[in-house]
Amino acid sequence: MSKNKMDMRELRPEELEQVTGGAYVPGVYKPGRYKEEAKAFFRDCVGQQTYHDAINSAAGRRHHYVAARAFLQQSDWEKFVWIEQFGSLDGYPG
């Protein structure tokens, strides 16, 4: 695991922009009803071990989306947010 990913373990939500290199746009993430479906997508993208490490980190336990944003590429992050809102990628515009 790279140093940047190790640093994510203690990440606070307001530090998210630093970890993602400024790719985070405030206001993009809105919690949805399908948290578990989004987390399953996150796990599928990064693999079981990385997912486990990220979700069980201090930041991941408090805010699952912080862990997802730190590890997912922009296109997968957008899908993660869509899934959390709508439950699947059905109708995804991308």
Please characterize this protein's 3D structure:
- This protein is mainly α and 94 residues long.
- It has a domain at 34-94.
- Helix content is 59%, strand content 0%.
- The protein is built from 7 helices and no strands.
- It is globular.
- The chain starts with a helix and ends in an 8-residue tail after the last helix.
- The relative contact order is 0.21.
- Mean pLDDT is 77; it is low at 1-9 and 20-27.
Mean pLDDT: 77
Radius of gyration: 12 Å
- Number of separate strands: 0
**Structural class by secondary-structure content:** mainly alpha
Helical segment tally? 7
Strand content: under 5%
Helicity level: 55-70%
Question: What is the straight-line distance between the termini?
Answer: 29 Å
| Main sheet record | none
Weakly predicted, low-confidence segments: 1-9, 20-27
Salient structural properties:
single chain; 94 residues; mainly alpha; 7 helices; globular; disordered N terminus
Secondary-structure map:
Layout: H1 3-7, H2 16-19, H3 35-46, H4 48-55, H5 58-62, H6 64-71, H7 74-86
Short structural description:
With 94 residues, this protein is an all-alpha fold.
